[in-house]
Request: fold
Amino acid sequence: MSTGLLSREEQPASGSRPAPTRRGGAGLTFQHVRKRFGAVQALADLSFAVEPGRMLGFLGPNGAGKTTAMRAVFGLVELDGGEVLWCGQPIRVQERLRFGYMPEERGLYPRGLVREQLEYFGRLHGMDANAARAAARTWLDRLGLAERGEAKIEELSHGNQQRVQLAAALVHEPELLVLDEPFAGLDAFAVRTLAEVLRGEAARGAAVVFSSHQLELVEEICEDVVIIDHGRDVATGGLEALKRSSTRRRIELELEDASAKWLPAIAGVELLERRMGRLRLLADRDVEPEQVLADARRCAGVVAFSYGPPSLAELFVELIEA
Amino acid sequence: MSAWRAISLVAWREIRERLRSPAFLWSTVIMLVIVGASSALPTVLHEETTFRVGVVAAPPQGLDAALQRAAVPFDATVRLQVVGSTAAGRTALEAKRIDALLLLRDDRIVFRESVDPQVAAVADAAVRALRRRLPPAPELAIATLEPARETSEDAEALVAMLGAALLLGSLAIYGQWVLAGVVEEKSNRVVELILATVRPRHLLIGKVAGIGLLGLTQLALVAGLAAVLLAAGVYDAPPSLGRSVTLVVPWFALGFALYAVAYATAGALAAQQQDANSAGQPVTYTLLAAFFAGYAALTADAESAISQVLTVFPLTAPLVLPARSALVGVPLWEHVLALVLVLASIYALVRLGGRVYAQGLLHAGSRLRLRTAWRLNHLRD
Reply:
């Protein structure tokens, strides 16, 4: 499943603390950001960074503070402490003109025309009327909505409304793109389209941040991830390096005899899943894979065996449970 | 982005979206038709006119026929009522059972308070026709029971009442548009996208300005038509009333700025579309209270101290000042004072309401109380 990803360029792990301290860095930087809503500490001490041309998966369990952090980029949350920086500088309205945002709760004007709303958002981001018109047309073409430009938003299907929402975030060629759960509720085709669009934006040089609970998808398309819990970053950095830094290893093996009752009797090895003769195990990093293989062979023939870093989902569970 | 650019972008979006719905166009057409049709009203009424003329018994032969003939050029008929004595005639006149009392013995025609020149002319013509066969007599002397007023009070009261009602309706309707627009933006979270690049205060001002411009355009067309018709003498009213009618337009702008900001603030406190109406109620009730307070004060005595206070008090001035100007006139200093006070109130409301608006917009979940919203710190304004 994840074997194809191992060839991906390896990133040095910035690991845990201390957080990025350089102020002059390109891209978006969160530095020790704190925010409390009444009794709820939404952001406790959040630090991470995303650079231009890279795609960052922003992960965390429900209620971890992802949406609050994203809204903070757009000045929609007044912080109690810490800083959100763009190119090392505090973010003002001028900087936000070059950002694109897709909020979690999607919203456009239901009775407004698709084309007019895209132009409106283009103009709100500083484009002149002609540039906004041209950009709106380009994005409607690219997202397959060229025929629906003069339709009202409320007349579109749910999927098409999502596309317009995406176009509204992209229409002004943002340097930073922040998307809150952009893949939620999309069918497989729409997921592929959106993934391609986001890759294209990163290739163009934009810094892309998106939150998601679809960890396999994140594993497929992101170079970097930040995992947060209780308003605090628990892991940030290159995806492969993070997986490798895990104290666990993933072992998959397939037994010849599907009915064999083998269970790993080795300390530090845990059975995650057994389906027919296929087993998925999670082992401590210092467990020798040969030892596991030999143990299995004592019970039944092994037709397939793989050993490697855990998947993102496994890493996620490991970090959040810790 | 400059404040002006942000405000005008927001305002234009409002205008474009509202113009797309037929509601604005049709309401304008209907109002213009009503004003236009009202100019035809005197003619319509005129055709049905019956002059009720009293005469002391016993009337000379042929008086009724002569009156009817004389009334023909006015498209009117005369109902002659014979009364027993002059005193009985006066009683009938005071009780409004007759419009005029013809006293042939004194060559007088008596009206209640204002002379109806048509009735006078009809009576005069009829009496002259009769007396060709009688000893010649001087023309009828015309008198009223009560001292005459300088102008027709009815026209002024009507203009004042209609102007105030027009203002009340426009402020309430366009205020509700603002309210609904704010609630829509908040409930579907489009406001998050906008506030990423636009300051809340600029969003508020742009919204109020856009919808206000639409209201102003409609009102200017309607009031303009009414003023033109008044000036052209289409109505039975002094042409100077046109000035009071045109006052409706700037006072709509001022009143709207005040009430629309209040509506927007109320809208920001609502959690969802269903809350919109109840959220706007305090503002609507204030508006209605202002209207009825003004109405009560002006009908009781337009010159009283309370009428004067309501003329300059910011919440009532937009409704009361144009009406009072039509009724009795408003001195310049009161115009200036009212203007200064209402502008100061608008400024204060944009500052204070703007904060509540900003905090309320970004607060998801339950409906907010005013005080809670004030204390929230979702963002710096």
